[in-house]
Write a structure and sequence with these properties.
The protein has 334 residues and is α+β, with helices and mostly antiparallel strands. Helices cover 27% and strands 27% of the residues. The strands form five sheets. A seven-stranded mixed sheet has the order 1-2-16-6-19-4-3, with helices on one face. Keywords: Antibiotic biosynthesis, Dioxygenase, Iron, Oxidoreductase. This is TauD/TfdA family dioxygenase.
Length: 334
C-alpha cells in the first residue's frame, strides 16, 4: 500500500472513551469512494481495531450492501444465529432482534462457531432518539485486565455453550441452521463439533465447547474472544431470567454458558466480566449515514439500550477458522 493512499484520508480522531472516528466530506458516489479508499480504511481498522466513518450519508439498503462489498469483498451467510434477523439483501442483515430496553452486552460475533467472521460491518440508516450505540472494547486490553486465575482457567478449559431451540423464544432451527430438516441439522452439527439431543416434543438441545482465548491471525496477540458473559443466564435482566427458568427450567434456557468442564459459572464471575468490559468500553452515538468496521477478533462490540426507531444494518466478512487462532485448539471440540 502506498503512503499516498493512506495520506488521502483525513486524520482519525482519537478521543478517550470513543471509538476511532474518521470524518469525511460526503462523496458523490459512496460505493466508488469505498472501493477507492478500501486499502486505506482497512489499514486504519488494522491499526485501531475498529473505525467509525462519518459523512458517507448512506440512506438506502441497496447502497449499504454495495458499500460493504466494496470494503470487504464477499460477505458471509450467518449460521447458528442466537436471535432472529431480517434479511435486507444478499448476506445483508438487520441487527439481531433484541428488546430495545435490554442491552446486548459485549461479545464477539459468532465466537461459538468453528468459522467466525474476521470483520463486522455496520451501517446506521436511522439513529435512535437516545442510546443504542454499537460500543466497542479492545479484547487484548480486556484479557490483560482479567484476574489470572479466571483467564487462565478459561484458556485451559475453554467454555461451553448450551442452547435449547423452541418455537417461542430465540432463533428458530431454520434461522440458525437454514433448514428444519433433522438429518441436515444433525449433519451440520457433526461437522461443527456440536452435540445434539432431540427431545420427545421435537425440540433440540445442543452443547458445544469452544476456545475462550485466541491469537489474532495477523498480529499473533492473545485476545479474550467469546460470548461467555453475554449468553450467560446471569447477564439477563432478573425478571427475564426468572420467567425463563420458571417456563423452561434451568436446563431449558434458550442459551447459557458454563466452564469448559461443564461447571456452572457464578453470577460473581459474570459480573466481573461485564464490569471489565465496561471499563474498556468506547462508545459514540450513531448518526444516520454512519458506517463502522470492526475487527471481530481483536474487538468486542455491544448494542446499548435505546428509545425511538433504530435501523442498523449488519454484514459479516473474512471468515476465520477459530482453531487456526487457538493457543489450545483442542478446546474447540468436546
Amino acid at each position: 500500500m502506498s503512503s499516498s493512499s493512506l495520506a488521502s484520508l483525513p486524520e482519525v480522531a482519537l478521543q478517550p472513551g470513543k471509538p476511532p472516528i474518521l470524518r469525511i466530506e460526503a462523496p458523490g458516489d459512496a460505493v466508488s469512494w469505498a472501493a477507492e479508499n478500501r486499502e486505506a480504511l482497512r489499514a486504519r481498522v488494522a491499526e485501531h481495531g475498529a473505525l467509525l466513518v462519518r459523512g458517507l450519508g448512506l440512506k438506502e439498503t441497496e447502497r449499504v450492501g454495495a458499500v460493504f462489498t466494496a470494503l470487504a469483498g464477499e460477505l458471509m451467510t450467518e449460521r447458528e444465529a442466537f436471535a432472529p434477523r431480517q434479511t435486507h439483501g444478499p448476506r445483508l442483515y438487520s441487527s439481531a432482534t433484541w428488546p430495545a430496553n435490554q442491552p446486548m452486552c459485549m461479545h464477539h460475533e459468532l465466537s461459538y462457531t468453528l468459522q467466525c467472521p474476521g470483520l463486522m460491518l455496520f451501517a446506521c440508516l436511522t439513529a435512535p432518539d437516545q442510546g443504542g450505540a454499537t460500543a466497542v472494547a479492545d479484547a487484548e486490553e480486556v484479557l490483560r485486565a482479567l484476574p489470572d486465575e479466571i483467564s487462565e482457567r478459561f484458556e485451559r478449559e475453554g467454555w461451553l455453550l448450551t442452547r435449547s431451540y423452541n418455537d417461542e423464544i430465540g432463533a428458530s432451527l431454520t434461522e440458525s441452521f437454514g433448514t428444519e430438516d433433522r438429518a441436515a441439522i444433525e449433519r451440520y452439527c457433526r461437522e461443527n463439533a456440536i452435540d445434539t439431543d432431540w427431545l420427545p416434543d421435537g425440540s433440540l438441545r445442543t452443547r458445544q465447547r469452544r476456545a475462550a482465548v485466541v491469537r489474532h491471525p495477523v498480529t499473533g496477540r492473545r485476545c479474550w474472544f467469546n460470548q461467555i458473559a453475554f449468553l450467560n443466564e446471569w447477564t439477563l435482566a432478573p425478571e427475564v431470567r426468572e420467567y425463563l427458568v420458571d417456563e423452561y427450567g434451568e436446563d431449558g434456557l434458550p442459551f447459557n454458558t458454563r466452564f469448559g468442564d461443564g461447571s456452572p459459572i457464578g453470577e460473581d464471575i459474570v459480573d466481573l466480566l461485564n464490569t471489565t468490559y465496561e471499563q474498556h468500553t468506547r462508545r459514540e452515538p450513531w448518526q444516520a449515514g454512519d458506517v463502522m468496521l470492526v475487527d471481530n477478533i481483536r474487538t468486542a462490540h455491544s448494542r446499548e439500550a435505546y428509545s425511538g426507531d433504530r435501523q442498523v444494518l449488519v454484514a459479516m466478512a473474512e471468515p476465520r477458522r477459530v482453531a487456526d487462532c487457538c493457543p489450545s485448539p483442542e478446546v474447540t471440540r468436546r
